[in-house]
């Protein structure tokens, strides 16, 4: 699951393109299938979103929650690919994008009535 935060007036017009860009990067780097898009956009009021100095009101935070198993190189490739593709597709400068990957053990995921370590029918690899 991916959660994207930003000021609503900045983020809302970009939601569809940003979702498509993020998912394309997830497919390219992690091998996720087309139907594994799970994005949540949080459109915040300007007064509710504090961000670091030197950033514009377009500052966007992308939290990627995934099961542990991807290598450091794979994770770094994903982050760098996201920066590059987001800048290309949306004109959003890397200084205005923050990406964090949060990994949890498979047993800490619950979906379809089971935990992640019990799932035997995933159509993508975790250990890449």
Automatic annotation (TrEMBL):
<dbReference type="Pfam" id="PF14552">
    <property type="entry name" value="Tautomerase_2"/>
</dbReference>
<protein>
    <recommendedName>
        <fullName>Tautomerase family protein</fullName>
    </recommendedName>
</protein>
<dbReference type="InterPro" id="IPR037479">
    <property type="entry name" value="Tauto_MSAD"/>
</dbReference>
<dbReference type="InterPro" id="IPR014347">
    <property type="entry name" value="Tautomerase/MIF_sf"/>
</dbReference>
């Amino acid at each position: 699951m991916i959660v994207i935060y930003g000021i609503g007036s900045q983020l809302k017009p970009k939601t569809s393109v940003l979702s498509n860009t993020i998912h394309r990067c997830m497919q390219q780097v992690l091998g996720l299938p087309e139907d594994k898009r799970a994005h949540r956009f949080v459109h915040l009021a300007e007064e509710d979103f504090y961000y670091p100095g030197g950033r514009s009101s377009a500052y966007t935070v992308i939290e990627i929650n995934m099961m542990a198993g991807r290598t450091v190189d794979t994770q770094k490739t994903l982050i760098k690919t996201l920066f590059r593709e987001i800048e290309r597709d949306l004109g959003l400068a890397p200084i205005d994008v923050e990406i964090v990957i949060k990994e949890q053990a498979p047993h800490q995921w619950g979906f379809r009535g089971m935990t992640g370590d019990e799932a035997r029918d995933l159509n993508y690899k975790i250990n890449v």
